[in-house]
Known about the structure:
By secondary structure, the chain is α+β, with helices and mostly antiparallel strands. Helix content is 32%, strand content 22%. The structure holds ligand MTE, hypoxanthine (HPA) and dioxothiomolybdenum(VI) ion (MOS). Hypoxanthine is lined by residues 282, 353, 356, 360, 390, 394, 491-493, 496, 560-561. Ligand MTE is lined by residues 276-279, 392, 520-522, 524, 559-565, 695, 698, 759, 761-762.
Amino acid sequence: MNQQSESRVATGAANTDVTATAAATASAQAAAPAPTRPTPIDDSTQAAIGVPLPHESAALHVAGEATYTDDIPELRGTLHAALGLSRHAHARIVSLDLAAVRSAPGVVAVFTAADIPGENNCGPVLHDDPIFAEDEVLYLGQPVFVVLATSHELARRAAALAKSDEVVRYEPLEAVLTATDAKARKQFVLPPLHLKRGDPAAQIAAAPHRLAGSFEVGGQEQFYLEGQIAYAIPREMDGMLVYSSTQHPSEMQQVVAHMLGWPVHSVVCECRRMGGGFGGKESQSALFACAAALAAQALRRPVKLRADRDDDFMITGKRHDAVYEYEAGFDEQGRILGTRVEIALRAGFSADLSGAVATRALCHFDNAYYLSAVDIVALACKTNTQSNTAFRGFGGPQGALVMEVLMDDIARELKLDPLDVRRANFYGIGERDTTPYGQRVADNVLAPLTDELLASSDYRARRAALLPFNAHSPVLKRGIALTPVKFGISFNVPFLNQAGALVHVYKDGSVLVNHGGTEMGQGLNTKVAQVVANEFGLPLSRVRVTATDTSKVANTSATAASTGSDLNGKAAEAAARTIRERLAALAAQQFGCTASDVSFANSAVEAAGASMPFAQLVNAAYLARVQLWSDGFYATPKVHWDAKTLTGHPFYYFAYGAAVSEVVVDTLTGEWKLLRADLLHDAGRSINPAIDIGQIEGGFIQGMGWLTTEELWWNRDGRLMTHAPSTYKIPAVNDTPAAFNVNLYHNDNAEPTVFHSKAVGEPPLLLAFSVLLAIRDAIAAAGPGMHGAPPLRAPATPEAILDALEAFAAAQQTASPTPQQPGQTNPATTSPTTEAAATPTQASTTA
Ligand code: MTE
Ligand code: HPA
Ligand code: MOS
């Protein structure tokens, strides 16, 4: 006790004593009513692992006090930037005359590619991403110049002069807009990827049943609530501080340095938090950081570039849309014997991250299923559109979706419950367990997870109940679907799987953590704080995670591939453990025991019956000249990848999940509603169930938006017409189903990840496949005599649903004189490549 009061004097850590804090608060209130400010985290909150603690900034988020880049107080002399955009999808720039822009009200300067001292490039992998177009524009919306003005509004008005022929004169060139057109011209940003195992052609030819089909899915705008923004502040001796809303501060630092022709140490990039990234700020924050930094350096003034929503839509890339052609041979149970797919992704005008996206698509075609003989081709098609980029799932959803469509096709072909076809194809345990790319699926929980979901969702009974419902409901049709997910966790570029952290323990026992990850709302900082607090036996309030800062942790990877807490949690844990071990050694000296006997809990250290407050031990360590800060580093073990053969062990482990969705479709209007969704997802041993469930709900709803309401539409000039919330529909609160049962599947990670947790950021997005296939099921119910699957494209907008209903009905009419034989595919239901699609299947039924 005596020691404790001494420590308070030495450290001033009065707030570790609850009574003292309460007394102080009471007296403060008596003196004057204290202004009520949101406390980030209640002091009594324990850091326990596995506890559903609120997001570390939750109170700030709801109070509007969380600081985003645009909230940073502006320095005197700050100028505002806006980008002048191209008017053509593909054109030669004949002349550029910026006089009118320079003389526009409030304008201070205009810069183009010619003003860039270093390289005019901000591409993450290849050097094919100009910051400003030089001689040629490659998409409609490409920045040609940046204008600096005294206000945001004046900058935008001046930038809009880019529309004038007086300012930029173009000679239009032929534009290639779609993946299909690019493929026909063999126009790719990267060479095609081709992975083959076994002899699928022979297997398909010899199979008792065959089908072929094609499918397409649209892209998706990230629609982060906070748009792209950078605030660049010049510093002495050719230095630059860039505040950037980015998932990748180290890359922003590098591209800015490269653009200025500087060494990387001259640039600091900082990001406290983003108002969402969803992949859209993994690489494409770069253009904004570079444009702001270029102007800031040229003018030696702080420059803020905040893209207006419409400009953000027009400039930045989205999820890759995809066109598929597929073929499969299968047995009576629907088990696939051989399959083939071509996935043509629209990459846009540059490579960006499309190589890794295409690779992930290729590695997720299997989804939850063993494919003994398989041929997968992934194409990154070069088009005159925005350069498509990372979006939650990173190609994984595009790879797995077509497999789920195929499962549904097979089930409809064989008149089986699609669930049974799925289960017949599940990866095995100890057999049928190697992926097409050669990694063994060692931690497979698909079967027990599905069983648990079947029971909790009452799937079988609800499916049975649909028959009488649909029989008596001529207009409204219900459908249900269960889809599973297996998602590979790790960057599929092995060297990116590394992270660093820096932990400081101050003399009062409070802890400051910096790590290489970024906070975008996903709760990474909360989880990392929990890990560090747990290491020291402290409540969360004693641990503060600061803004991501390239001057603290160097050479970080993007916060992406869902690996944020796996990587940074481990690095921070390592840093904290180093300090704890030093503290334990000192405590052991004082207690007369060994360091391994010393435990850290409840803000105290304890061993051999003796105990001392954490803060007191820290202060003693300081006086004994023990280093109270440490770095930590983590590199994911086991991962490797051979980019030539497309084989290896790209993923440390897999995350699993499954969902059951039930919808009702109005067959007259194409409107539909999600009635109930049951989600069961494997987040390993969850560090924070509240945050993980939030991620699962958010990922599912976001995936549902992609597959149903979010439609990107370019006109024939290559102008994106859906570039604002007025025409681009993301899900709203009332799209959440009335019955929304979201649960964690209890499953410790078999690998020694941080507390045996699993990454959770991206995989749940794929649970939304169940919504699309439930809609398909409802459409199928509108033609109960029909055979095969309705030709429903994604997004399944009301128009797409009506088109599918119409095509299905038309097929029914043409088929009606001769009733369909079981196993016969209706041409219209499989593929626009009708001959190829229908012939082998029909042949198989007569064989
Ligand atoms: N959750 C929120 N709220 N906001 C986001 O921008 N991005 C997603 C996911 N969840 C995102 C999110 C994406 S694309 C990824 S890769 C992961 O979070 C990244 O964070 P993590 O690795 O820490 O999970
Ligand atoms: N996910 C996200 N970003 C990436 C990946 C990935 O798998 N690989 C390389 N960059
Ligand atoms: Mo997420 S698409 O890996 O940023």
